[in-house]
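Morning F.,

Quick status update on the modeling queue. The single chain you submitted on Monday has been processed. Sequence for confirmation:
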Amino acid sequence: MTDEPKSRLSRQLTTWDAVIIGISAMIGSGIFVAIGPAAGSAGSGILIGIIVAACVAYCNATSSAQLAAVYPESGGTYIYGRKQLSPFWGWLAGWAFVVGKLASCAAAALTFGYYVYPSLAKFLSLGAVIGLTVLNYFGIQKTARMTWGIVMLVLGALAMIVATSLFGGKADVAHLSPLLGDHGIQGILRSAALMFFAFAGYARIATMGEEIKNPRQTIPKAIVMALVITTFIYLSVVASALLAIGPLEMAQSKAPLAEAVNAGKFFWLTPVVRLGAAVATLGVLLSLMVGISRTIFSMAANRDLPHGLSIVHPKFKVPHRAEIIVAFFIGLIVMIGDVRSAVGFSAFTILIYYAITNASAISLPKEKRLWPRYFAGVGLCSCLLLALSLPVQSLIVGGIVITAGAIIYFMKSKI
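Structure tokens below.
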């Protein structure tokens, strides 16, 4: 006998499968791209920014974990907000997640293309989207196996970056000062908001609640394990790169980790870093596409989106129609423009998404909470603070998108 709740999808993922999927979602294009702008905001204070982002992410992780234990269904905060707060807040969370992460997917795909072969970036990006959609279509277990391989390659590349940066002959402790950077607390908060964008992937575990074995025990454990491992890796990589090239050069470079390796006597290993970046963005794209399709699947099952998107493939037990529509929109964005400038906008929508997560956790009754309620309260306030710390343009665009989602909901409710 098993106490696992009934699932519409196939439960094949173990604890370590879930951990690896969460790590893959966090350790990707963020560590290769976001640290440049974050260093520009905080200088050497980026290390504090990472710690702040990790603390906020931990509070959010505790909220996600206990909500996932109560509601082990695909959809993440769309489900939590819907059941703990109201259908409106669930819709708004799903809207923020899908719109923000579609932009993130296109950015990850384009980053992959530009690292591999810049002059053919768009076509390579589109090919990556199509290839990963085919992989996802044939079952979640194949996706998990592919993710394991990607994570192992990326971790190897990051370990090489740390070693070559520290022992390449250019490391200087003076690069770590001033500890608070040149822009003080405001700069650190902005860098934390940008780096939080790179941490946000741990919730991918929760969105796959119907494909994980023994989800009530596995999901909370996997989320926390993935977050702790990722924080350690981020601090190690960024600190070693700072020691090698300093915050100014890190902020000015479009490929700061490659620059850190290139600065020392192991410069000949720089192509390996670029390969690692390409593979990492591929891993992020794979994980994001899975998470978005499961959220759309859940929203469609509740008829917040066209119900046909909730159809499950009879053989492979995946929401294949949702996966195809996600691939279509990502491919469309990839071909019509460069969306890397939307990173701030995506960070804003995801912080709003997690604010709703924390609000949902606050409303849990005492007997269903795994952590004290104040963890969720700190997470809620921190998400709003970091969102307001982003550049004005990101606030305006993000505010328009969230408002549009609210308008669509109320118009839909009146039909």
